[in-house]
Automatic annotation (TrEMBL):
GO MF term list: calcium ion binding
InterPro entries: Cadherin-like_dom, Cadherin-like_sf, Cadherin_CS, Cadherin_N, Protocadherin/Cadherin-CA
Descriptive protein name: PCDGH protein
PROSITE patterns: CADHERIN_1 (PS00232), CADHERIN_2 (PS50268)
Transmembrane segments: 711-734
Function of the molecule: Potential calcium-dependent cell-adhesion protein. May be involved in the establishment and maintenance of specific neuronal connections in the brain.
GO biological process, one term: homophilic cell adhesion via plasma membrane adhesion molecules
Main subcellular location of this protein, as a coarse class: membrane
CDD domains: Cadherin_repeat
Length: 739
């Protein structure tokens, strides 16, 4: 079978051909996203156990085991019910049975039974059709609907008479459901099978000899149904034949009158009573049937009688209020036509089947929340159609509420306030009035009353926060929104409409009464800046805001708003040493000149020359300063500490170093954008101040030397240009002369 249960050699050949087709198709897979589906077909007998191999699906699709992880072979189907029967192995690619297969459950009486699946592979995507045929096995036995077949045959019946018998049923299909019948031996009867046009076989019992009841009044035989399966299965039924005689006795009731008591509203189908009559005859002449005798339609709509057993059942609704009793006649008739009659009297007993009825006489829709306890809200009346305890009613309110119900005159009740009302907790009360009677079981009715509570101004506005904090960057635009405060008033309408006002506050020493820092919008509670803030002048201030409702009298509350001004980088570093610096605008630098420092020529590396001292009026990162040497006569001779601004020698001073040194140090903050300033430091390399004085004198005397040097450089450049022009002219003249 090559892993396919129940597959013959012809099917195996077909499968090998299909495998060849799949192999060809596998070569074409890279050429298209979804190739035409290849149909594979397997066959497997029903009742195959879980885990059985149906077929090598991956191999038949042209897939190697090494390809399975990448191709991700799996099954698809439109029906989850079909998918539960089979599964595919991720390791081997074999198709397995996942659940026991029952062909009769899956396909019923259908001649063919198959499960259609789709096998999907990826990389590239392709879908193949897979059909699994479920083959029938002879796993069902022929079954008769009854354990025994009862027949009555009159003793004067002529030989040759035919009596059709019940056919057996076999849920299998094909030859497994083709039935043949056999009858146990009996000299008076034989079995014949009549085949109909649809192929079914009808067994018939044929009378062979005349019957004599005095000699034998009954017969018993066994009918056997055998199917065509291999091995065959069979089922049997017993045939009981009763030989009947003439009718000479009428039925007789056990009572001339029957009585019963029945509760009203009993369920439909309930048994009321049973009438019983007997007949001395046998066979059909002694069989009694029952029926109503001359009864009105009202009785037939409520009662029914079983013609065989004489049982009288309820088929309608019994209502004590409509009719308290019923009297009617019943007839008993045997198979020969003789009959007799009796009377039936049914008394209906009362039940508690009527719930109290509630009528609302007076309702107050709206009540102020400051109404005193005991205020009447509604007047209700209750009535129960029943009598006695079933008609006695008492009322109550369902659930918890500030209301109560008290008895009034007669069958009336009042709904009143039991405690103070609070509209803010509950603006509406839906109370349910429950009226219950004292029957068993008790019946009750409900009605809902809706009450609206009107508002009074009993709540002051409440801010969402007791204190607010706002953060605003300095240099803000006047009129910019700072913060929105919000207060809620639990009251409704004008009582809950809130307005906002500034009560007062402080802004430090910089605040002035003539120019307030903020204002508040009365309706929204939004605070707006009245002017631009300066962090260096005022870092924070506080104001009080009052929220007031529109009630009469008005109620109010206050909250504190604290505004913190955030620093911006709007101040450049200010150099204190060597000299005071003039701050530059953002992004620019300012140059300062300073005094000189004397450094001995014997100074080693790390010698402290001086320290640049600067401050920044800003705060935070905007005031963090860093120092950098941007220009020097001998760049390799000095270095500046990044954080402290200390100027030190980077190496030992040598005799080759110029006596006069000029250093330019840039001071930069960490704001965005960064601001900076520069400081110029003059250094004289000398062992003492006396030795440094000549260098300073040369510096003073040679103050104009840079200008003289520039003059000589320009003069020399002019002479070179004139000499070049003269040379060119002489060369040209020489060429002209040769020509």
């Amino acid at each position: 079978r090559r892993g396919v249960a129940g597959m013959g050699s012809g099917q195996a050949a077909q499968r090998r051909a299909a495998t060849g087709h799949v192999a060809v198709l596998a070569l074409l897979l890279p050429l298209c996203c979804r190739a035409a589906p290849e149909r594979l077909r397997y066959a497997i007998p029903e009742e195959t156990g879980n885990g059985s191999v149906v077929g090598p699906l991956a191999q038949d699709l042209g897939l190697r085991p090494t390809d399975l992880p990448a191709r991700q072979l799996r099954l698809l189907t439109a029906s989850r019910r079909q998918l539960r029967y089979f599964s595919v192995s991720a390791d081997t690619g074999h198709l397995y049975v996942n659940e026991r297969l029952d062909r009769e459950e899956m396909c019923g009486r259908s001649a063919s039974c198959s499960v259609s699946l789709e096998a999907m592979v990826q990389n590239p995507l392709n879908v193949f059709q897979v059909d699994v045929d479920i083959q029938d096995i002879n796993d069902n036995t022929p079954v008769f609907s009854k354990a025994a077949l009862d027949l009555e045959i009159a003793e004067w019946t002529d030989p040759g008479a035919r009596f059709p018998l019940e056919m057996a049923q076999d849920p299998d299909v094909g030859s497994n459901s083709q039935l043949s019948y056999q009858l146990s031996e009996n000299p008076s009867f034989r079995l014949e099978v009549k085949e109909s046009s649809d192929g079914s076989r009808q067994p018939e019992l044929v009378l062979e000899t005349a019957l004599d009841r005095e000699k034998q009044s009954s017969f018993q035989m066994v009918l056997t149904a055998v199917d065509g399966g291999s091995p065959a299965r069979s089922g049997t039924v017993q045939i009981r034949i009763n030989v009947t005689d003439a009718n000479d006795n009428a039925p007789v009731f056990s009572k001339s009158a029957y009585e019963a008591r029945v509760r009203e509203n009993v369920p439909t189908g309930s048994l009321v009573l049973q009438v019983r009559a007997t007949d001395a005859d046998v066979g059909s002449n002694g069989r009694v049937s029952y029926s109503f005798s001359n009864v009105p339609d009202a009785v037939r709509s409520v009662f029914s009688i079983d013609s065989d057993s004489g049982d009288i059942h309820i088929v309608g609704i019994l209502d004590f209020e409509e009719s308290k009793e019923y009297t009617f006649g019943v007839a008993a008739r045997d198979g020969g036509g003789l009959s007799t009659h009796c009377k039936v009297h049914v008394e209906i007993t009362d039940e508690n089947d009527n719930a109290p009825e509630i009528t609302t006489l007076l309702v107050t829709d709206t009540i102020p929340e400051d109404s005193p306890p005991g205020t009447v809200l509604a007047l209700v009346n209750v009535h129960d159609a029943d009598s006695g305890d079933n008609g006695k009613v008492w009322c109550e309110l369902e659930g918890e509420s500030p209301l109560s119900i008290v008895a009034s005159s007669g069958s009336s009740y009042k709904v009143v306030t039991a405690s103070a009302l609070d509209r803010e907790r509950a603006s509406e009360h839906n109370v349910t009035v429950v009226a219950s009677d004292r029957g068993s079981p008790s019946l009750s009715s409900r009605t809902t009353l809706s009450l609206s509570v009107s508002d009074v101004n009993d709540n002051a506005p409440v801010f969402e926060e007791a204190a607010y904090s706002a953060y605003v960057s300095e240099n803000n635009a006047a009129g910019a929104a700072v913060l929105r405060v919000r207060a809620r008033d639990a009251d409704a309408g004008a009582n809950g409409r809130v307005s906002y006002w500034l009560v007062g506050g402080s802004a430090g020493e910089a605040a002035t009464a003539a120019a307030p820092y903020v204002s508040v919008e009365a309706r929204s509670g939004t605070l707006y800046a009245q002017r631009s803030f300066d962090y260096e002048q005022c870092r924070e201030f506080a104001v009080e805001v009052r929220a007031q409702d529109g009630g009469s009298p008005a109620r109010s509350s206050t909250a504190t708003v604290r505004v913190f001004v955030l620093d911006l980088n709007d101040n450049a570093p200010h150099v204190l040493w060597p000299t005071a610096a003039t701050p530059g605008s953002p992004g620019s630098s300012s140059v300062v000149s300073g005094p000189f420092e004397v450094v001995p020529r014997s100074a080693e590396a790390g010698y402290l020359v001086s320290k640049v001292v600067a401050v920044d009026a800003d705060s935070g990162r905007n005031a963090w300063l860093s120092y950098e040497l941007v220009q020097a006569t001998e760049p390799a001779l000095f270095r500046v500490a990044l954080q402290s601004g200390e100027v030190r020698t980077a190496r030992a001073v040598s005799e080759r170093d110029a006596a006069r040194q000029r250093l330019v140090v840039a001071v930069k903050d960490h704001g965005q954008p960064a601001l900076s300033a520069t400081a110029t430091l003059h250094v004289v390399l000398a062992e003492s101040l006396q030795e440094a004085l000549p260098a300073l004198s040369e510096r003073a005397a040679g103050a104009e030397s840079p200008s003289d040097l520039q003059f000589y450089l320009v003069l020399a450049l002019a002479l070179l240009c004139a000499l070049f022009v003269l040379s060119v002219a002489l060369a040209v003249a020489a060429r002209v002369r040769r020509a």
